[in-house]
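Input.
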Amino acid sequence: MKRYVSSGAVKVVLAAIETGEKIDPVTADAVAAGMKAWAIEKGVTHYTHWFQPLTDATAEKHDAFFDVEDGKAMEKFKGSALVQQEPDASSFPNGGIRSTFEARGYTAWDPSSPAFIMGGTLCIPTIFVSYTSESLDYKAPLLKSLAAVDKAAVEICQFFDKDVSKVTATLGPEQEYFLVDSALYNARPDLVMAGRSVFGHSPSRGQQLEDHYFALFLPASMIS
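Output.
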């Protein structure tokens, strides 16, 4: 990013990623120009706001690097085009049947996710909300959750360290692998057909006392 925009613009974008600060129009224009230059160098001709509506698939709204200035066609990409677009919200699940003026949806640039190129298109990750600000995608609720966790965790951390100003939540899959002898595998129809254990004994560390987790607490004096 530092190759295409000023250091001041980089600082504003990093602050937006770290603290959620707003990106001013001047910085948005500078970032859009740098993003367009980077994309065109790689043979890109169009850009799209790429989002994840409630359809279990991704969606895109494509446009060309095109603008009209003084009656002439210009190869441009403004900050306003980077920051926001207007897909038809009523066309997506939970968009609903709305009055005409409420049928608009808005995609808004999410600077915390990097833009990427697919084919000849610059893909700009965005969130998708309705005219009435309802979340119509999977990403907006995620970002709201991360913000809520950040706020609550910072308040707790500051009991121990007043210098803590941000907590970043991360996710990681827990993976467990089990090696099974091929002869034993073939002797188990559940493993062969389902790829998982459907029957069998509980493991030796199977929380044998789990029925006590929510049992009534009895003082020692009442236990004979």
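The helical segments are 7-19, 25-41, 79-83, 139-157, 182-186, 189-194.
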